[in-house]
Amino acid sequence: METKLGVYICKGCDIASSVDVDKLVEVVTGEHKVPVCKTHDALCSAEAVDIIRKDIESEGLNRVIVAACSQRVFPELFNFGSDILTDRANIREYGAWAHEPNDEDTQMLVEDYVKMSIIKMQTSEPAVPLIEETSKEILVIGGGMTGMTAARAAADAGYRVHLVEKEAELGGWARKFKAVFPKTPPYESLQDPGHADLIKAVETHDNIVVHTNSRIKSAKGAPGKFDVVLKNGSEAPSFKVGAMVVATGWKPYEGKNLGHLGFGISPNVITNVKMEELAASGEIIRPSDNKPIESIAFIQCAGSRDQDHLPYCSSVCCRVSLKQAMYVREKYPNAKIYVIYKDIRSPQQFELFYQKAQTDDGMFLTKGEVGEVRVDGDKIAVDVSETLLGEDITVKADMLVLATGMVTTNKPDDIPVAADASVDPAAEIAAVKEAADESTLEDGKKAAASAEKGAHLINLGYRQGTDLPTLKYGFPDSHFICFPYETRRTAIYAAGPVRSPMDFASSTSDAYGAALKAIQAVESIAQGRAVHPRAGDLSYPDFFMTKCTQCKRCTEECPFGALDEDAKGTPLPNPTRCRRCGVCLGACPERIISFKNYSVNMVSKMIKSISMPDEFDEKPRILAFVCENDALPSVDMAGIKRMKYSPFVRIIPLRCLGSMNAVWVSDALASGFDGVILIGCKRGDDYQCHFIRGSELANYRMDNVREKLTQLVLEEERVQIVELAINEYQKLPKIFDDFVAQIEEMGYNPYKGM
Amino acid sequence: MAEFEPLQDEITAETLVVGGGISGITTAIETAEVGRNVILVEKKPTLGGRVLATNQYFPKLCPPSCGIEINLKRIRATDKVRVLTLAEIESVTGEPGKYEVTIKLNPRYVNDKCTLCGECEKVCEVERDNDLNYGLSKTKAVYLPHMMAYPHRYVVDPAFANDDRMKKCVEACPYGAIDLDMQPRTIKATVKAIVWATGWQPYDATRIDNLGFGRIKNVVTNVIMERLASESGPTEGKIVRPSDQQEIKSIGFVQCAGSRDENHLPYCSAVCCLASMKQATYVRERYPDAEVHMFYIDVRSPGRYEDFYVTSQADEKFHFHRGKVGKIVENPANGNVILEAENTLTGQITKLEVDMAVLAVGMVPNTVDQAPPLDAPIDEFGFLIAGGDRGIIGAGSALRPMDVAASIQDATGAALKAMTAEVRR
Fold first, then answer.
1. The pLDDT of residue B267 is above 90
2. Angle at Cα B351 formed by Cα B348 and Cα B352, nearest 5°?
3. Is B409:B375 a contact under the CB 8 Å cutoff?
4. Residue of chain A with shortest Cα separation from B152
5. Is the pLDDT assigned to residue A315 strictly greater than 70?
6. For the residues B357-363, what does the mean pLDDT come to?
7. Where are the beta strands (DSSP E) in B258-335?
8. Which among A387, A713, B171, B395 is most buried, taking Cβ atoms within 10 Å?
9. Would you say residue B95 has pLDDT above 70?
């Protein structure tokens, strides 16, 4: 369709008093021959919006540019429907508010922003959503409290659910537990886990199909259309689902690893899991001789908060031991209980449960370091040092319970938790690089296999592995503070102890959240809309396959495993797995990956549209690629604070710094830019990138860029990458000004004007 | 989109969310992205709640505005969320499936012609205490509540709406956006479910008499410390002590200040240990020579937060002392504070003199000021009791003390609880 563009220039908020708006209009109507160009004193007024709306109708506009404030200010006001492509030329925060009024350089700057916007509109199309036939059914893996709660919640909301449980009965750990600690006032007495009612509700629910004795044999496909095949004895039932909740729970840290705490020296040294079984059976007796218990000791953090075992805290074990102590005291009113701990962790109202336990005369709780554990006659002796009493003591008891922690079932069995610590993103990328460089399919497969040490809970048919990727300790989440349900696999959400150690109360609450996200995913996908963080985005990447060289960079680098590949290594896109970050677009050396409204070509042309003064004008030009999620708001804030910085900088927002294609740097240098600066989110273990690896990848691609610079006999320092958090806007003027000064020192780009 | 559509006197939605902090925002946007309509009610002039006053989140030490930015982008991108700020719930009748709610909208005195140009603020001669900074700094009486404010728009402090000096601001606005005659309005909402996400407030530290807050200048609370460390705070990120504005060389964190204490808050607020360790990083980053002391009963850093504790312990200038601080006195000679901690078992007293003390005060549910309507049960502390899925649904720290991650987790689930409330009735 022919593009018909209207440009609307705002004169308010100091714009007209800082720049020559008439001259700006001339650029639009003269140089760029835009048919409709109007100015207004306040484009955000109802009256002005109405004028634009009427022009769209009467003039048949299908592209609108609002040259005014930032794209972040009132975007909803200039939403004229999905058929009308709208862009902002930010001449307020980047222009009038950040630079000297009525200055030649400021004028050139705002003109460039308007020009770039015109080119952007001329080289992009409105996104057309990809709507396929999809399933809105939901798969819940794991039939414990978390899985059952998620299944029932989704089913109650009207969604059909397949609940898959590996054992013969539903209920998970709850079935093996005698009681749980209290979650309702007065927070003092033990409560029933409540699984019986839940099992009944799930089994009789019209919307739930329960598959017991089953595991996932394979789950091929993509969100909206996963083909799930189960393994149930000799049978292999299959069905289609749109999204999944992984609620496979936890496994206990194994007692056999805890020889240093006495496990194995006597049958009377047991784990808390075994203790729970004894209690549930009603027979709390000493394993060695079946005698009643007169004294029992608990060692807390058995293998937890321990760099050689589980470095993390399992959150529940303190309360579990207090609960188990109550079992013992209930059965044997004269029994003595010893609890040796590092810190008692009974958060929130659970503190009252701890206080209740402390009032019990038979309970001795002491902070201390456990030394030797040995058999002493028919007792177990535990040496304890650094106690609160300031002296070393030896506790002797009939039985010893080791309070072991929780390990996520998302953790493959053959990898020790402490050893893996974290998957180093840099190492991961190095593996990618290696595979890409050698460029044989076999190497690609090897790299994939190394990334694939999955726990085989889901058995996804993804090129990047069978399970939810983990970052630390096997936990599958990717943004655990702000977006706790996000994983690196679209429409697959984890709930309960599989994603973090948690108790029953938190797990059931967590189940609702994951089920909600699964519902949201199937609804969004059915409409061709992206899910978090670009929720509602209708665009998706197109691949011009005939030019593909099978380099596999896109399939390796996609943070969400959206791309599979055929036997030759040609990518096989799965648009419903995609989060629309554009990392693939940035990765592709052949420039064959494009979104309708975001492409290599679009940005290249925007770069080339910028006016380039020659070196005798003494006006250097710096191109800044800025991540629109965090760095761009930061530039806005500098503008709002009226901070001034060099007018020689031109900013191009990117969906993610990971979508930066190295060719843009070449384009910029070829166009005469003297320097290029990339500003993105923090990377590393505590990354702030919303697409997880975007800024990491941009940094890695810088190596190629530097190589290219060397070939061109240009200084490496002409291209820099900077990390900036969203609140660090104060640093921005200095970052820009210092870079400009450095470039001026270095001299102009010798290719300028060539 | 809804922000710019006229507000009728009677509105409907599937879910009403009360409280526009991180929990309420989460419930609202997660509901909207399923395709359901939501009304989000906030009594302050902007969404964001207490995370707007937070400098960094533990354990990543990242800025809260990063997540807020994405969430506000999501709210702007949907037409399913009707945000009502400066709004209060007056009454609620009904039951799951059909509630009728009366909502009072207090005047902003700034209409939607505001372009954020800032001319009003420039000429305004009237100042008010900045509530975001606990009154430690001032703003003009017409002000933008926060850089990330939503709605993105100025507001006039109602205490000064009748002040004649404000007329200058009216005249200065090129867009006719300031309207000091704006009147309150009452509207009626009909909804199927209600989520109560009204959040928390810090425990009133002046009640803990022995710790000297309010009497001793250099005793501050953890919420004030958060503002001192913030670039948008009263000291623009300089951690200085109130008595003489000197940058600190030593600091003492007093854990469980009023918490786990039957005379104050018997429960544990779950976040204060990590908050103090986080605040210690603020000090250590700005003043590499400063000594940090933390007095605790138990250090509570559950789950992977343990890594943060391990990192803190590895810092040689970060000293952990077991014991509850029973008394704080001032050294009149230099304004320093002397912390007296008692080992709860041995009775041994430790004394330590530092430049400034931070009381790690706990979280009190805002339901103590406004209890939820109808028969929503609350416990003796004011927290909503998690019935889970019947009647009014609690979310976030209205249920129990919790951190941001847990609040978001809980509030996401609350969206589904609300969607199914009618079925469960």
1. yes
2. 145
3. no
4. A73
5. yes
6. 98
7. 291-296, 318-322, 324-330
8. B395
9. yes
Nearest to A516 among B346, B380, B413 (CB): B413
Over range A195-223, report the average pLDDT: 97
**Would you mind telling me the total number of residues written for chain A in this entry?**
754
The answer to whether B201 and B258 are in contact (CB under 8 A) is: no
List beta partners, residue B268.
Answer: A348
Same structural domain, A228 and A269? no
pLDDT score at B84:
98
Identify which of A69, A157, A725 has the shortest CB distance to residue B66. A725
For residue A2, count other CB atoms closer than 10 A to its CB. 5
In this structure, the strands spanning B250-257 and B356-361 are parallel
Residues A208 and A340 in one domain: no
What distance in Å separates the CA atoms of residue A398 and residue A405, rounded to the nearest whole number?
Answer: 23
Cross-strand pairs, A295: A336
> Rounded to a whole number, what is the largest CA-CA distance in chain B?
70
- List the single residue in A with minimal CA-CA distance to B363: A348
Residue A727: closest CA among chain B residues belongs to which residue?
A: B63
Q: What pLDDT, in 10s, does the model give residues B112-132?
A: 999 999 999 999 999 999 999
Indicate if the pLDDT at residue A425 is higher than 50: no
pLDDT of residue A232: 94
Domain span including residue A174: 138-251+452-526
Nearest to A713 by CA among A754, A669, A667, A663: A669
The larger pLDDT score, comparing residue B385 to residue A121, is at A121
- On whether ipTM exceeds 0.95, the answer is yes
| Res A421: pLDDT | 38
Q: Do A482 and B305 count as a contact with CB atoms less than 8 A apart? A: no
Integer Cα distance of B112 and B104 in angstroms: 19
The confidence score (pLDDT) of residue A433 equals: 47
Task: Bin A212: left if φ > 0, else alpha if -120 < ψ < 50, else beta.
Answer: beta
Residues A748 and A611 in one domain: yes
Residue indicated by tokens 């039985």 = A399
Q: Tell me, what's the pLDDT at B119?
A: 96
The CATH code of domain B2-106+184-201+364-424 reads 3.50.50.60
Residue in B82, B230, B420 to test binding to A, most A beta-carbons within 10 Å: B420
Residue among B257, B116, B268 nearest B177 (CA):
B116
Q: Which residues of A196-218 are buried (b: 16+ CB within 10 A; e: fewer)?
A: eebbebbeebebbebbeebbbeb
Enumerate the residues of chain B whose CB falls inside 8 A of the CB of residue A505: 386
DSSP H helices, B126-251, are 167-172, 222-228
Which of A315, A349, A726 lies at the smallest CB-CB distance from B69? A726
Helix count and strand count (H, E) for chain A: 20, 30
Across the interface, whether the CB atoms of B1 and A313 are under 8 A apart is answered no
pLDDT tens-place string over residues A665-698: 999 999 999 999 999 999 988 899 999 999 999 9
Selected from 3.30.70.870, 3.50.50.60, 3.40.50.300, 1.20.900.10, the CATH number assigned to the domain covering B204-361 reads 3.50.50.60
One domain for residues A641 and A735: yes
Q: Are A733 and A720 in contact (CB under 8 A)?
A: no
Task: Assign residue A38 the CATH number of its domain.
Answer: 3.40.50
Tell me what pLDDT residue A417 has. 66
Residue A455, both tokens: 């726990």
Instruction: Report how far residue B268's alpha carbon sits from residue B273's, in angstroms, rounded to the nearest whole number.
Output: 10
**pLDDT tens-digit readout, A133-181:** 999 999 999 999 999 999 999 999 999 999 999 999 999 999 999 999 9
Whether the pLDDT of residue A451 is over 50: the answer is no
* Rounded-to-integer distance, Cα B282 and Cα B276, Å: 10
User: What's the pLDDT at A576?
Assistant: 97
Q: A340 contacts in B (CB within 8 Å)?
A: none
